[in-house]
Each structure stands twice: as structure tokens, then as C-alpha cells.
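Sample intake sheet
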Amino acid sequence: GNIEAMQDGVLPASPENLASIHQETLHLARLVDDLRTLSLADSGQLKFEPTETDLRGLASRVFDGFRSQASVKNIMLEFESPETLPAVKVDADRIAQVLRNLLNNALNYTPDDGRITVRLVSGNEGITTSVTDTGVGIPAADLPYVFDRFYRVDRSRARTTGGSGLGLAIVKQLVEAQGGKVRVDSTEGKGSVFSFILPSA
């Protein structure tokens, strides 16, 4: 609609208006990419390139990429992990995508001056990576559905933050396709913990 208005001379092609259109274009591109990822996963055609991966190093790099976004909202970021962990055999790019989706989700639903913690723990089943926030939390009735496609707990808030309701569905697909499991624990008004476990190599 904005592009047509510019073509008709009703809306000026100012830097501000062009920036708005650019943002919408990026949003549509992300949406198409997310839908393509899920479609390929459904048909078993999603390509994975598993290699022995240092999950601590991978998680730390993704984590550092969110510092500037967190500082805008004065959100404290914490990273907790043993110095050494067993390697995992995964597609590193796909697991990085999982972490980015979880951190984006935590940032969107954590109010200013909150805290987000990424924690890695080694156990008998493998390595558990969790993203804990001090956000709004999720009602108990919604918890069974948060990994479903297009499901949004707070629809009005998700719309303002640009959420498509696909991020957590992609997390589930990418983790389970690599032999892992996902989980969510949450208390309304106190925050949420999204975690996934990957078997050691």
C-alpha cells in the first residue's frame, strides 16, 4: 500500500518511509524462509551437515551477538557453562538458529531491566542448553501448545513485536531432527525456561 501511494504521489519517498518499507520486506523474507524451513522438515528434505561441535563455543558466539539488543532494553545477559563439555555431533548452523530463535523470543517478552540467562549443563542424556528469562511468563493452559505453528500466547503483543508464531516450531523441528528434545517450564508473571538437550557425540 505504501509503495502504491508513492507511485501515485500521495506519499513522499522519504528516507523514513523507505526505511519502513524495507523493514516490512525483511519481515516478509524471514517469514518465507521460516515457512520454507518447516516445509522441508515436514517432507524430510531439510539438509543437515553434522560435525563434532563445541557447543559452549557456539552458544557463546550466538550469545555475544545479542548484547547490543539487550543493552537497548537494559536487560542483563548471563552466560553459565563449564569450561569444558563433551562435543555434540550436530549441524552447527542449525543449532545456532535454534539459539537465536530462543534468545529473540526471550528478548521480546522480557521487560526493561530484566535478565536472560543462557546455561549449559552436561548430564547422562547429553548436554542441556537452557534460556531463562524474567519475562511475562506463559499461562499453564498455553504451555502444551507453545511449540505449535502460528501459536501465540499474547497475540496483540506478538503482532507489535513482529512475531509470526513460527520461531518455536522451528526450534522443535531442528532439535528433534538431530536426535534432541525440547522443553518449556514457565510461571505466569515470573518468567520462562526454554531448554533443549542434545546427545553427546
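Comment: Strands lie at 51-53, 76-80, 88-90, 115-122, 127-133, 181-187, 191-198. The longest strand covers residues 115-122.
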